[in-house]
Every structure is written in C-alpha cells, then in structure tokens.
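User: I'm writing a tutorial on reading structure tokens. Could you give me a worked example: one chain, its sequence, then its tokens, then a sentence or two explaining what the tokens reveal?
Assistant: Sure. Here is the example chain.
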Amino acid sequence: MMGRWSLGVMALSLVLLDQVTKWWAVKNLSLYSGIVVMPHVLDLQRVHNFGAAYGIFEDQRIPLIAVSIGVLIGCWLLRRTLVTSAWSRVGVVILASGAVGNLIDRLWHGFVIDFLNIHIIPVFNVADVCINIGIGCFIVEYFIFRRASTDTV
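And here are its predicted structure tokens:
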C-alpha cells in the first residue's frame, strides 16, 4: 500500500512531468506544426487549447478554472468516502495531478498547451493522460473489485 509520502511524491512528479513536457513543447515546437515521430500514428504538435477536452467549452476560461478547482475540492472532500482501495487512492492522486497541471496552464497562459497528436483524438498532453488514467482507476475498481465483492454476497 502506498503511504501519504509516496502519493505526494507521485503527485508532484506527475505535475512536474506535465509542466516540463509543456515547457519543452513551447521551446521546441512551432505553433500548429509538428515533428513526425511515427508517420500516421504520432506527431508532436503544439496546440493552444482554449477549451476543455475535445475542444468543448472553447473560450470559457473562468468556468474551466472553476471546474478544475471543483475537481480538486471534490477529490479532497471525498477522499475518505470515495477512496476505498489502492486503485482509488492512486486514481484520485493521478486525477488531481492532471487537474493541477491543466489548471496551472489556464491560470498562467489563459489556455492549455497540448502537444501529443495520435490522429484519432484531439491533441492532448500529460495532464490529460493523468486525468484519463485516474478515471480509469475508479472504473477498474468499480467493475472488477466492487462488482466481484457484490457478486459473492
């Protein structure tokens, strides 16, 4: 089981990884042009996202900042009831780390820096990956562990 110290180091590491990769993208990638890593599979392409996932809520900076803060407050308030296993404990830390990474961008730049383009979904970043993995941890816990325990009752 991971302790508070380990989870704190994980959270800080993920936020730093997100911010360092975005800094790298700003320094090395021209806006809207990119570097082909694997043709037709992966490009590094810097995009300024003024909305949320998949470009929804474009130019809604203040509401998106409020949503990010709300997610963080929710993670904090629900940590005792929502977090019931190692999966959800790690999931909430990874989810919160992603929310912090994109919140930093919205506060600092007024938009989120995206740079990973796999061509089948909109361009994204490390914080977006964290948010999805965090949610995935809750889904795994619910469908595998909680369902398994209710099936035996």
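What the tokens reveal: The longest strand covers residues 42-49. Residues 87 and 137 are 5 Å apart (CA to CA).
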